[in-house]
Amino acid sequence: MTTTLSARGLGRKYGKRWALAGCTLEIPAGHVTGLVGPNGAGKSTLLNLAAGMLAPSAGRIEVCGGRPGSGTAQLAKVGYVAQDTPTYAGMTVAEHLRLGARLNPRWDAALAAERIARLGLDPGKRAGKLSGGQRAQLALTLGIAKRPEVLLLDEPVAALDPLARREFLQDLMAVVVEQGVSVVLSSHLVSDLERVCDHLVVLVESQVRVAGPLDDLLATHRRLTGPRRDGPPPGAEVVTESHTERQSTYVARLTGPVHDPAWTAGELGVEDLVLAYMGSGATARPALEVL
């Protein structure tokens, strides 16, 4: 299996505070990977480390087989759209494209021009005068026109309205199909994960709670409901549990069939799966937007 991102004991410290600590993770190439977790889990720090915007304080990280930010060739492999979809307010759309061409050795000018025309962006308009959705599309254009091997997207659509968000994600999937680029998408929006991701990573307090192909995770996890007991039936690894006086409910990963007829096994949605792992071992149930 080819790996897009590999981290071992990865950490980043700001003064005395660790924003990310002891993170070990493997993200396979050729997938759209959803990176999800509560605020403060280290998602943005991880993506900044992967893009070469930050240097590790501990451990190591490799992206597309190289050390992030280690040189021109390595930088060309990675497209990065930060959380605020940054553009230069005083520069026009056309000036952004010319800057992209100067900074990126594999820049695809024809691709950039075609996208700008198809999106109806005025090349002479300054980025500061664009709508939020238009700025996000401009940032995505800059990211994909450099022809990267992996796109790192940090909450790129969180501030957009539903229509702009859907258009952005549709364009993203078209890029994945046409270019075969790997994507790591950080998002709090479960609907985004369901729409575009085929691989999932849940990160909580720098630790990977679960990772794998989304279809496989959904197929192997169930909500088990049965009479009040102190443990699940055989063949179930508990993720979270709750009890009433008469009934026990477990969200569990099944390692084998559940033969006991006293238990009812219900399927989980992406939201159920993510919230279960985000809540496992936590003192409070983390917030996650479901739109």
Automatic annotation (TrEMBL):
Keywords annotated in UniProt: ATP-binding, Nucleotide-binding, Transport
Xref: InterPro entries: AAA+_ATPase (IPR003593), ABC_transporter-like_ATP-bd (IPR003439), ABC_Transporter_VariousFunc (IPR051782), P-loop_NTPase (IPR027417)
Record GO terms (molecular function): ATP binding
Occurrences of domain ABC transporter (ranges): 5-230
Chain intervals for the UniProt region annotation (Disordered): 223-244
Protein name, entry field: ABC transporter ATP-binding protein
Taxonomic lineage of the native organism: Bacteria, Bacillati, Actinomycetota, Actinomycetes, Pseudonocardiales
